[in-house]
Specification:
The chain is an alpha/beta fold. The chain has one domain (about 30-280): Rossmann fold. It contains 7 helices and 14 strands. It is globular and about 50 Å long. Residues about 1-25 have low confidence and may be disordered.
């Protein structure tokens, strides 16, 4: 092995060894997000991006899809049951070569450039993601495209999110448990930006209306989505007390704003089964 190469290891020798069963169903992530045969999916926002990435990858894997998961920022290192193989290397040409040679073997590979002292993984460039997509050997690439430091609510920083230009679907996530919290740095990522965008003063409670503004504002969490990509709003943690009622209220306010690209709101409970509680469409929407 190249002595300069970062550790590469198989987390699971045969992830999901044995017969694969379908992940589809009315409350599966695949159906709820209306995925096409090939998708590059960028996840933005706060309150469950990493969990969504690996749960969705698992569903796709069980359908026999070839999946790559990665980030253009930083992510926590996946647990042993979240990916079939984790490949870490500072040289993106080596990363590309490994994926093209080994994806048929593992079917799900997670990519990063290095382990950081924080325990997180440093992600790859948008250029590499676009390059991998152009090879057409991958059915789905899922990218965590910004960070939120574990908060349920955020506003993007100036250079966020980092969405690859070939992205076909952008999923923006907020945790419904963020509504009702005081607007301060301990609760909200980039609290001052959230205050400026929503008009809520620091220290005041975040309202359902403010959550909808963060989803639909031009500088909100969909900022930088390619004009050609689909856009879906995902409200996570509806399994918390009063979460479904709150989620439906926020979803209604999002749809009332008639964002030209948001055609559905998914109410998620990513730490439970099924991972989706409900999908809400605007009135007169034809599925």
């Amino acid at each position: 092995m190249d002595p300069n190469q970062k550790v590469i290891y198989s987390i699971v020798e045969k992830f999901g060894k044995g017969a694969r069963k379908t992940g589809r169903g009315p409350r599966s992530l695949i159906e709820s997000l209306d995925l096409s045969e090939r998708e590059m999916i960028s996840l933005v926002g706060a309150g469950g991006k990493t969990t969504l990435m690996f749960r969705l990858a698992r569903e796709l894997f069980l359908e026999g899809k070839k999946v790559v998961t990665t980030t253009t920022t930083k992510i926590l290192e996946p647990a042993s049951d979240e990916t079939a193989f984790l490949f870490i290397h500072p040289d993106e040409d080596r990363i590309k070569g490994f994926v093209l040679q080994r994806l048929d073997q593992y079917h799900h590979i997670t990519l990063a450039r290095e382990r950081l002292e924080s325990g997180k993984l440093k992600g790859v460039s948008s250029g590499l993601v676009n390059d991998l997509w152009g090879s057409r050997k991958i059915d789905t690439i899922i990218i965590e495209a910004d960070g939120a430091a574990g908060c349920p609510v955020k506003a993007p920083r100036e250079k966020e999110p980092v969405i690859p230009s070939n992205t076909t679907l952008v999923v923006a996530i907020l945790g419904v448990d963020g509504a009702g919290l005081e607007l301060k740095e301990e609760n909200v990522f980039q609290a001052e930006r959230v205050s400026k965008m929503t008009g809520i003063s620091m220290g005041k409670k975040i309202t359902d209306e403010a959550m909808a503004v963060l989803m639909t504002h031009s500088e909100g969490i969909f900022k930088g989505a390619p004009s050609s990509s689909k856009v879906i709003a995902f409200l996570n943690k509806v399994d918390v007390p009063n979460g479904m009622t709150r989620g439906k209220g926020i979803a209604q306010k999002i749809l009332e704003k008639k964002h030209p690209k948001i055609e559905r709101v998914v109410l998620g409970q990513l730490k439970k089964d099924p991972p989706v509680a409900e999908v809400i469409f605007p009135p007169h929407h034809t599925r």
